[in-house]
């Protein structure tokens, strides 16, 4: 059984996507936009940040 690990480029890409989703969440919130967009961007950012927090990142030996 293989352990799930993230490579540094994948972790960086996920972090960028989480930042962009958080930015979009804030813009929709400030503009009092559609609630469904708040849910989509908020859940996307939250899930990605949880993955980054709990899945280890591969290190060089």
Account of the 3D structure:
The structure is a single chain. With 61 residues, the chain is mainly α. It has one domain (8-54). It has helices at residues 8-30, 35-54. It is elongated and about 50 Å long. The protein starts with 7 loop residues before the first helix and ends in a 7-residue tail after the last helix.
Alpha-carbon distance between the termini? Answer: 20 Å
What is the oligomer described by this structure?
Answer: single chain
Q: On the 0-100 scale, what is the average pLDDT? A: 93
Tally of structural domains: 1
Layout of strands and helices, then pairs:
Layout: H1 8-30, H2 35-54
Helix pairs in contact: 1-2
Summed up:
With 61 residues, this protein is an all-alpha fold.
Which descriptors would you attach to this protein?
single chain; 61 residues; mainly alpha; 2 helices
